[in-house]
Structures are given as C-alpha cells and as structure tokens.
Amino acid sequence: MAVKLQDLMGSVVPELRYQPVVKHLRVTLGDAPVAESDHAVLVWEPTRVVPQYAVPRADLAAELAPAPVADAEPEGEPVQFGADGPPMLDPRTPFAVHTAAGEPLTVTAGDVRREGAAFRLDDPALPDYVVLDFDAFDWWEEDEALVGHPRDPFHRIDVRASSRQVRIERDGVLLAESSRPRLLFEATFGMPRYYLPREDVAVELLPSDTRTTCAYKGHATHWSVRVGDRVVPDLAWSYEDPLPDAGEVRGLVSFYQERLDVTVDGARLERPVSPWSKGPGS
After folding, report:
1. Which helix (H) or strand (E) holds 8?
2. pLDDT above 50 for 282
C-alpha cells in the first residue's frame, strides 16, 4: 500500500531524529572559537519542529562544564502545523526545554560563559555528540553566515507568480485586493502565503518596531494596519532584503491570514491555525 510521505515523517516526530551534514561548520562566540567540524549532524529532539546542530566533543574548542537543570517551560501549547500534522514545539520554545535524554552543559569560550548553552545527548546512535544552542553563538556553513536557526535540508520554499484574485478583509474592511500575487509555498505549512504588490494594498501601512527572522527568507519588517479608526498592530510583513530563496517576494506585502478573511477566486478560505493565530490585536 502506498504511504503518504508526510504521514511517515510525522510518525517519527516523537523520536530523537538526526541527519548528518556534509557542510563545513564553524561556530564562534564573539572572536573566540567554539567549534569547527566536518562531522556535524542536525538533531531534532522529540516533538521539535526546528533542528539544532550537534558536533562531536572532539571538534569543540570551548570548555564544557555541567550546568544546572533549567526551570524552563515551552512557549504555549504544542502547535499543529497543517490539518494532518502532529502537535509540535515551535521555534519559540527555549533551548533549555529538552525532550531527549542527556545532560545540560555550560560553554566557556574566551572570557564568556553561556550557561546551559550545550546539551550532551545520551543516545547510542550519537555517542559523545553535543548539541549547541543556535541563539547563543554565531554560525557559518562554509563561509555563509546562518540566521534564525539551522536550515532543515527537508524544508524548502517555492515562490510562484499567479493570476488568482486574492481579496483580504478584516471586519468587512478591505485591506488588499490583487490579481497578481506571488504565492509562497513552504514545507511544513499546509497553506500558501500571499505576497501582494504595495499598490494593491488598500489601507495605510504603519511601520512597526517588530522584527522577525526566518532561516530561509531572512529578516522581516512588520507593519501595523489602520482599519477604520483603529490601528491593528503587526498585521502584515515584508522582506525588504530577503535571502536568495525568497528574492521573488522582495518588497511585497503579506498579511497574517490566520487573523483575517481571505477570499481566493471568489471562495472564502478557512482561517488556518498556526503559531501566529494569536497575535497582537487579534
């Protein structure tokens, strides 16, 4: 019997998963070296959606010492990505929340300490491998800097030009309407994102101080939207200087359709459920 690949991958979400990487990996803390390896692996702890890098202990230049077990909790409840996906811990969950067996470690590089920024896995398939907290250090694959989190080799984005008629509303107020959107399809998410030309946005976009980072698209600028006499914060975003994979949506505007009414070719879409369903002003 045929197997749906997404179901097969979802069935191992409760397990500790890993994938060897052939890229040269370099990790620093300021000017101090932390690790340099040709034998790194990507590790997904059970129920995690985003991987972290792990390197052999022998490839670490930093000092390690036992760290106290952190009293950390997941950010909210596990989130289901897509209608059929298993509940998973999204990237907001701190590194200190571990779902695999192992030992938390403190990393010292030069004169700087990062308490709990490493985790020695207790698994026979990964003997003496140490997971490093991406947010605690600076990272390079070959000579390219990484942002956001390690890039998942099974995750990709595709951008397609479209002539679909997209209409976006909130409480009956038209926010944008376009017949020339670019649709961004991203693995894990069971929906496209609609990126629209600014000329097709019908409301005032107000700059926000919010900045977010995607490992595949880059740094996002967020926009608040004036709806009637009310300003709804952080309802849209754009990539003004995207990474190469997202170059085709440069400067276009996308709205959080989780919190809006979206009609495509006359058909009203259901509001998807994602980590962004509950945002400011929702």
Report:
1. helix 5-11
2. no
Residue with tokens 């956001």: 148
pTM metric for this prediction: 0.88
Q: Report the pLDDT value the prediction gives residue 128, as an integer from 0 to 100.
A: 93
Alpha-carbon span 46 to 256, nearest angstrom: 28
- Both tokens assigned to 72: 């950390």
Q: pLDDT of 99-120, one tens digit each?
A: 999 999 999 999 999 999 999 9
Which domains, ranges and CATH numbers included, belong to the chain?
5-145 (2.170.150.40), 157-268 (2.170.150.40)
**Measuring CA to CA, how many Å separate 111 from each of 30, 32, 105, 218?**
10, 9, 17, 31
CA–CA separation, 220 and 243 (whole Å): 11
Q: What is d(CA 223, CA 210) in angstroms, rounded to the nearest whole number?
A: 8
From 160, 60, 47, select the one nearest 98 (Cα to Cα). Answer: 47
